[in-house]
Amino acid sequence: MGIGWYLxxxxxxxxxxxxxxxxxPNPLVILLCLELMLNAANLALVAFSRMWGGPxxxxxxxxxxxxAACEVTVGLGMIVAIYRRHLAIDVDELNELRG
Amino acid sequence: MSAVFFFIFAxxxxxxxxxxxxxxxxxxxxxxxxxxxxALAALFLLLEAQFVAAAQVVVYAGAVMVLYVxxxxxxxxxxxxxxxxxxxxxxxxxxxxxxxxxxxxxxLLGTALRGVSTRGAHIVLGFGTPKQIGTQFLTTYLFxxxxxxxxxxxxxxxxxxxxxxxxxxxxxxxRDPRLQPARPAYTxxxxxxxGLVAGGGTTPARERQEHPVLSPTGSRSDGEESR
Lengths: 99, 227
What we know:
Chain A is an all-alpha fold. Chain A has helices at residues 3-23, 27-52, 56-84. Chain A has a single domain (3-84), classed as Helix Hairpins, CATH 1.10.287.3510. Chain A is 77% helix and 0% strand. Among the domains of chain B are: 1-80 and 126-139, NADH-ubiquinone/plastoquinone oxidoreductase chain 6, subunit NuoJ (Four Helix Bundle (Hemerythrin (Met), subunit A), Up-down Bundle); 178-227, no CATH class. In chain B, 20% of the residues are buried. Chains A and B meet through α1, α2 and α3 of A and α1, α2, α3, α4 and α5 of B.
């Protein structure tokens, strides 16, 4: 299979994730959609790594996985803190910092 | 043969991604994401990235998703309406996503990278194995590796600080002091003797009446029990 096919799949997954971030009100699902977008980027990086025949893209993909794990940890910690304060788990309700 | 596997796993990955966005229950969204991640790991294997595929299954589908399942079970995400009334973003979001797909595909069709249409460069034996990745991490990419480990540490500490139980958040419940078990005078803990905590029979009743303090159990001490 050509590398272009992998890039098309990566683009489709990225856009699905972007639509989810824009439309879903639940912050848990928003974090899941961010994971989708990061994974789409990972797929593109690994595909380019295969295209050039070098390992650099795979290194980059592993670093992206580390960043994603950090983002998940902090994001889920914030959701647990929101839940402890008995606030609504809904990004439309949590607009105190809105300008 | 690789084309068959590619289409099978690409369709599973895209279906999983649709499931994450479309399913109403967050718990099912997490399960759809696990399905998506495993299909993506298979795509990584087709791209000769064995170590990344293994890390994807073990770290992502194994550890991170367990964290998600725990938090969804803790918060108790029930069914929610997929489309709430109002909000132009709910309508414009899918339009934006579709436009992004079209734009990226046009960019891919008009690319000057000739390698995109090939099956990839010739690769050496041992491409994408843990040995190669580890050698790269400890020689060329040592600094990003160390920064990533530091970032993980900071994120772990930050999550503990964010999610810990703070004092004073729970509403203090008024309790009838007459319902407290009666204690003889001049007995109590060291904290009560020092005057940090009200209660017991050690503090003079007059002083406690002037400075009513809250005990950690939430009962308001007004010197009732010593009178």
